Amino acid sequence: MTDTFPYLSMFIATPEQERLYSRGAAEQWGVPNGLTVDEFVAADEVRSQAAHANNGKSLSWVLAPRDDPTTLDFRCACSTYRRTALIKRPNDAEPQEVHSYIIVGVLTPPQNRGKGYASLMMRLVHDLVGANVLPEGLSRPTDFHPAQFSILYSGVGPKFYATSRPYSQGFSKDLDYGVGWIPRDSTSSVYIIPEGVHVEKDLPDGWRWLQHDEMAALWENEKQFIAEGMQNTSQSSQVLFSVLPSGGVEEFQRAWAHYLYDKLDPPMNIAGAVRNDARAVVSWALNGEKEPRGLILTRLRADSEQDGEDVLRAAIALTAQHGLREVEMWNMPLHLRGAAAKLGFAQKERVDILPSFKWYGPERPEDVVWMNNERYCWM
């Protein structure tokens, strides 16, 4: 196959295109989760004004003919969200703050599927978000900041996005699984609560519960702990990067599933827990993607196994109190896996929602470490 679509390019979606894109996304992802199309579209509009997306951080794009960029028969669409991140190279005195992007909502209308449009779009997306000089026919807003890296979560297995070569690098018939978004760490630690079990909800001394409206301030202070973790890592010969949970990024995990919270009895007003000295923290959200319903931990930072065990017990108890069945954590920190196993957490490798990254720097992907590859990064 060669590039057979020289008449197509990427454009920022018009309001009419965006509405059509949102309705298509509702059919794809909202209806299977119990929402009507109108409910999903309304929620999408609210989410677009939230902290993780406002002030130009989010853009919707369509693949469309160059001579008819506003057509409602666009070939496919996706969205980009700008995220603040930290990177640390071996010779850096301290981590540096950079821009990154997450690519979400890759959608091809049914009549356009199977024609190679999505493959072309994703190749162009690389250049849109990561290139300093754009290929001919491609443009972006003047205040758009090229990224050090981009991430996405693959729902179509590990290969499709991994072979997505940047458009500016030309086309190759050879499948190279290192040129696109490379899957990295998709381990889940899962605890299933036995039916009929009652667990007391309690926190040890020195901890307190966190309400939903406390989370934004909490994450503004998290940068110092993430930077500290990068400074102290033993992988000093590699490049480290981490997305930050601030700016509404972690809070999106609860905002997108707000309709599930309305169905809980009793209501769940607790979004996490923090040690009084802030040296350990845990946050969670309702997992709306599967049965059995449960909590998914969005962030877990704890220096000691005891702290990890304490907050995992608290999460289990809160889950049981609300009649939910499962607690899940993505990429449990290695030093806490023993404590989790003692409580009954089992590890498994996910086959979908695969965290994947594309590095736009000069380093090889195998020399790059994604730190804090936790649920809070997901969209």
Automatic annotation (TrEMBL):
Residues 201-379 form the LYC1 C-terminal domain. Signal peptide: none annotated. This is LYC1 C-terminal domain-containing protein. It comes from Cylindrobasidium torrendii FP15055 ss-10. The lineage of its organism: Eukaryota, Fungi, Dikarya, Basidiomycota, Agaricomycotina.
